[in-house]
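Question thread 4412

I'm putting together a teaching handout and wanted feedback from people who do this every day. The idea is simple: show students a protein as raw sequence, then show them the structure tokens that encode its fold, then repeat with a second protein so they can compare. Below is the first pair exactly as I plan to print it.
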Amino acid sequence: MALEQLSCKNCGEPLAAGQVNLQTGLASCAACNAVFTVAGQGITPTPAPPSRPPRIETSEFGPAKEWRWKWWNAGYAVLLVFALLWNGFMLFWYGAAIWMILDGESGGWVMATFGLIHLSVGIGIGYTVLAGLRNTTTIRHAPGVLEIAHRPYSRFFGGGQWETRTFTAIRIETIYGNKGRISYRLMAVRSEGNPLKLLSDNERDMIRFLAYDLAAAMKLPLEASA
């Protein structure tokens, strides 16, 4: 239905183009000052694309586009303090265990064995902090190909390269975890197989921006929005 054919739900007066907001789906009538939705009169609200977060850099090379950002944020600073405390304690623990072993006490081996699980946790936390300090994520899209890389530390963090011919949509999934924690997943819906998880992050605005921008670059619909 053409925009000039829309009318006020309250008084019936025709609406001018400037009285309808396509992003919100709301209209205001100049005759009676009523504000109402026009979604049922042939107008579908069109949400404004999210703005680019400052931490994300974008580049274009002909038909190819690249998104890049560093991992470091305040959350890693907190994790760094925790890692120092945890691994400092483990250093003390194994120092005592080694001292006991060298002194011929069998309890040293018990301490060393008991601490293995805690040591592995400390190593994992330390690796995560190191990645947070140095890693950069790069997304590259060229016609028919999508690549996501986390460097210099990529092990356990995903990434990969995929042909996009089977991609049918981009999706955002909201994940509700323990203690009210919320994270967001950037997914690619495929015509063959299950949806593919591209990224996950706690920053909603970043995932929304990437979803909109990737969908536009690949000329795919955005199936859902967080």
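The second pair follows. I'd like the answer to focus on this one:
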Amino acid sequence: MSIIQNTEIYEKCENESHEELGREESSEDESNEDETNREELNESESSEDELLTASSDSNYSFYPSFLSMVADTKKYVLGLAVLFSISIAIGYIFGMHNPSSIETIIEGFADIIIPEHTSFELMNIIFFNNLEVAAIAIFLGCFFAIIPIFVVFFNGIIIGIVAESFIREAGLLFLVVGLLPHGIIEIPMILFSAGIGCKMGVGALQVIIRKKTARSYLHDFVTATWIFVLIILPLLLAAAFIESYVTAFLLEQMF
């Protein structure tokens, strides 16, 4: 009897051991299945994101791209406006401490530009000069935004120097009348152009470090080109017309 009992006990323990092993294997299988399901879900979500990105890259629409460009450019324009104000102050202070050399530069510039050209010719000179500045700021901004920052800083220095000379020679009213009518259009367009250039520079860096696709950057470039042609160009033309005709007329009548 003892041998039979021992045999039964052994078989019972062996069965329990097999059952426990089966439960462990079943638990491991379920865990592996859950992990597999999670991996498949992650892969599915990743593929959906890639499809959405590819779809957004391949489908280009100007109006949404324009709104996105304006929204993204706003922060750069604000920063450039601060830099512009600082550079104007620097130019003004420089003019105060170097009046004779500044007067020589301004008089030489006036002798070259004003007497030898009609109002229409002067308008063309001003327009194409400002258009070139805006184009350089936008399309050379891809070099990490260095060029548009320099454009804003340099133009601020020039305006500060001219402002100091005008105020010293003719008074503050002369400066306001001589700068405000066209400057209210021209200056924002230059800042806007430089802001777009800064966005293009940041975008180029993002392409290099692979945080932005080349196709998306190309879309930004196309949008910047359309903004330049449809918005900046005509407004700079309007500013050049105002400066050549309206500002000149006001200065002639008032002073």
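Top answer:
Good format. For the second protein you could add a caption like this: The CA atoms of residues 56 and 216 lie 8 Å apart. Confidence is low (pLDDT under 50) at residues 46-57.
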